[in-house]
Amino acid sequence: MTPRIDTTTLDTSRTSSTSLTWQPPAGALWSGTWVDGKVSFAVHDPEDGSLLGYVTDADEAEVDEAVRAVAAATHGSPWPVWQRREALTAAARSVLDRRELLTEVISRESSKTVREADAEISRAAETLRLSADQAGHLTGETLPFADTPRGEGRLGWYTREPVGVVAAITPFNDPLNLVAHKLGPALVAGNGVVLKPAERTPLTALAFAEILLDAGVPAQRLAVVPGSGHRAGAALAGHPMVDLVSFTGGHRTGEAVARAAGAKRTLMELGGNNAVLVLADADWRLAARSVVEGAFGVAGQNCLSVQRVLVAAPLAQRFVEHVAARTHTLRVGSKTDPRTDVGPLIDVREAIRIEEWVEEAQRGGAIARAGARREGAFYWPTVLTDVPAHARLMSEEVFGPVVTVQPFDTVSEAVEQANATAYGLQAGVFTQDLDHAVTIAGALRVGAVMINESSDFRIDAMPFGGPKHSGVGREGVRSAVEAMTEPKVVAIRRQTAKAI
């Protein structure tokens, strides 16, 4: 992370010293107002290192102030459901209206190309629309008290109530839509939210907060506290007034968040090492095209990215040749060029790490059919075959533009290999036999199986998450709203019935 800067001794002007046309009103948001904290840090473009702006580097005391203010507002006055729906509907429209601004902010501070940033804006607007729609589903039901002798003479029901204060901790790879996936459901459910965005992409979060406030979200119910994970993130997750922690990131960081949170609710999406199975009867050209599209978007920095492909042995050679040929056509270059397919990693350290993982696999016998080249923060889309089973690429999440291809002899062997990882987020299966596909889907230990799609497919309405190291609970708008509310029972003991 960029060194902390004392704002009392440095001019952090947001108008003349940066290369970004939009700047937030201040470096953070809490207690119902835009504020600059005691200390700030600089945000840079990972492609060229240019200065984009400054945001607050929140410390424990500032996080405490933010949480207490949101808790007081959330528990102090109700926010009618119809107003929540209208605010999120307006925010969805505003996200689309500010497409040009958001595209610039997302693409400049993250790894996304301008085309990828533009697509994320549409996704975020859809997430907000889906969240607004959930206002009509915050219902309960009557309870069958009369169905038991102990309940006789009573009537009652339950409703779904907000949990209280939601702590949202988000990653850099989808800096708008993944924030929308936490804030939309939390707000429509009636909660207050304190957001700690990724250190690399806080400007997008602040731009989104500005949109939400303009759309009618009460400022006291929302806080944004940029800062480091080990300080601001830990203080937020462990705060006694936080009722639920929603986190998206790596498994190791997720464990740290869980330790900080202690005995409170958590909702976590922690990544994957996703497999795609290509059976002998598959449309292998479709599969190859889908694998390339699913492996290298956002430079592979996507929890749903295709990382391992298991292909029936009779198809293996032509499949690999086709995948390699398509990969060679991808254009690596500046994020600002609309023709670019693959931009930089989020920083040079990540590119070096991926380079080391690939070189480790090559020392074990892996063969690079495409890519395996680094230049600064750029890593070329890479296709590997003959990767040894002990290589980290086979068991851990690479979070970069690398895909491995392995042949298999039997489908049971392929399923076993697909399951041979600590992760279980999503998988893809290509076959023309629907019955076979359903059987395989039942055997794969993952949260979702895409038939004749790669693992890199999701709509924002579906439950999202997986077993094992891939997470705790499910995201997706409806699932998140359910997790961020809790049932409240009301029971009435009737007095002696009077004759009519």
Structural overview:
This protein is an alpha/beta fold and 500 residues long. Helix content is 37%, strand content 21%. The strands form six sheets. It has a seven-stranded mixed sheet with strand order 15-18-19-14-13-20-21, with helices on both faces. A six-stranded mixed sheet has the order 10-9-8-11-12-22, sandwiched between helices. Strands 1-4-5 form a three-stranded antiparallel sheet, with no helix packed on it. A hairpin with a 6-residue loop joins β4 (39-44) and β5 (51-56). α3 packs across α4 (114-133), α5 packs across α15 and α9 (284-296) packs across α10. The longest helix is centred in the N-terminal third of the chain and has 20 residues, at 114-133. It is globular and about 85 Å long. The termini are far apart. Mean pLDDT is 94; it is low at 1-17.
Describe the secondary-structure layout.
Blueprint lengths: L4 E2 L21 E3 L2 E3 L3 E6 L6 E6 L3 H17 L4 H17 L1 H11 L4 H20 L7 E2 L11 E9 L2 E5 L7 H12 L3 E5 L5 H14 L6 E3 L4 H9 L6 E5 L2 H11 L3 E5 L4 E5 L5 H13 L9 E7 H16 L19 H16 L3 E4 L3 E2 L2 E2 L2 E4 L6 H4 L6 E7 L2 H9 L6 E5 L3 H10 L4 E4 L19 E2 L4 H7 L1 E9 L7
Parallel strand pairs: 8-9, 8-11, 9-10, 11-12, 13-14, 13-20, 14-19, 18-19, 20-21
Antiparallel strand pairs: 1-4, 2-3, 4-5, 6-7, 7-23, 12-22, 15-18, 16-17
